[in-house]
Design goal:
single chain, alpha+beta, Nucleotidyltransferase, domain 5, Alpha-Beta Plaits, five-stranded mixed sheet, 16 helices, 25% strand
Length: 634
Amino acid sequence: MIMESDREINSTEKLLDVIRGRKDSGAEKTDAEVKVKRKRPSLKAFRFRPFDSKVTVGVDVGSQSLRMVKIQEVSESQWKLLDYRSVRLPKASVGSFEFTGFIKSELNKFCGTSKHLRIWTLIPSSKVDVRFIKIPKVPPKQVENAVYWTVKKEATFEDSETILDFDVQGDITEQGVQKTSVLVHTTPRSEVQAVQNLFSDAGYHLAGVTIAPFAIQNLFRTGWLSVVGDVTASLYIGRDWSRIDMYSKGNLVLTRGIKAGLSSMVEALVESFNEKKKKAPAEKASVTETDRGLTVEQAHKLLTSLNPDAPPLSREDFGYQLKEEEIFSMILPAIERLVRQVERTFANVGAERVGKIYIAGVIDGYKPLVDYIGDQLGIESGIMDALSLANSSVYDINPPSSVSERVSFAPAVGLALSDNSRTPNLTFTYKAKAKMIQTARANRVIMLGTLLFVLLGTGVFYWQGHLVDQKKATYESLRNELDRYNPRIDKNFILQIATKVKEEQKITRNYSERYIGMAVISELAALTPSHIRLLKMRTDLAAVPALKNPEGTPKKEPVKEGEKDMGRARHLEIEGIVLGERGKLESLLSSYVLKLQSSPLFKETKVQKTSVEAYQINRGQNEVLLFNLTVKMI
């Protein structure tokens, strides 16, 4: 199984499948250069965020070496390089028991016993189809369907065998019509499953799988490396092909393959060298060299020797006597053809917007090649030094002294900066993201509901506490008021007062019994008007005492049939006449009855009988109203 796109390069090539640039050597920065500043992480940050900080391991399995980088996310915009490691791969096929054991052993050494590490790795970029499409402006819920059917028209793939994912980049206006730009990539499901199985067999779960352009994208998105201008380009020069990637403000906006690479330079070197040898005098070269000429293998070795970190040619190597300038001049035609292809690519985004280009490949550290491409394009050029000491995030780690070695760690560093929020993950597609968003929304609703419940409970708690404080204040006020009384009132004191009150009531009752008759006569005299004359009055002031229950409460006996319920209370029978006009006699009697009922001594007055009769008054006969009244007394 191939783990990187640079597998197409032979074993003598470096495993550099990423964009690389030149390390700054004290040159002045242009005004257009944009830098993302990161402060040196303090010990306080690590002390108070030991469990919140994320640690990610980037694993780059190349054709010859295994490169691993461990980075800790200290805060939202601060990272710290914890460790890096490069190990030669064994001569075993990928997927074999020996190779899996090697991966497991090296990961155990590098990761240790921590269970909170997130591991990201790569699959070859050539296995992933990346394209940019434009869809009509639709509501967010319809974006998925619009992307799916647009891609389905342009590319043929089986849903069961392909992983489809996309990233909405923003709205654009095309010929007055508003559209949405979307980055779409499709990947064979078997490729992702193969790399997952490799790490799973080694005992590790992968947090993410991506490709080199997206890993390099992390370097720009996180500010790990600075960018120049609006657009930054990277040119990867492979064996038989090259790839140009363009990033606008940290976002991949264009990727294109070019049918020109190291093999084109090798062919140009062989052709130019052999042509010159035919024209050169025979005495300037040995007989052996003149006879056989330059082979492809020898030309390839000559090119790789241009890398400042590559071992120099020995006297036995063919072309040892050639100078760097001579070799470079022989490959210029191939380089110029490559540059023309890059220029046509720049036209898609506007060449004036490109601020810098990073050169990657076998001879990426060869400064004349890097400078020449930059001069021809009219922009700044360089290599990508992701482990430079100038980066504040690597202040605790001593990076490799070799520029090529530092540059080769760029993909692994980008992987270690990966996160689902900024890195396309082939194992975490838009469907999983949508589900995660729904879950997050549900969690937020639950959390807000819980928070509101807690706040409500807290409010009720404090309100109840306030009521308790008020009750306590009232209690203390009444207690203080009670303390002012002397002697203090208690049960015995109340019983004494109750006994005394009962005695006084008994005395009062005796007095009322003794003078009840006088009081009744006095009350009748006061209430009886002059037009009413009382003829007879009969009363029984000795009331039958009320029966009581054993506990002392009054006992009500049923009244026998035919008896009036007045035998147990005092009552007064009155006989009298009403004087006055014939038509007013009844109303005068009613008025008198009301007066009697309003008296505090009488509680009920009933008219038993009335009749109009002739009565002699003042020696004359007059009609009067004769009445009989029954009055209950209290």
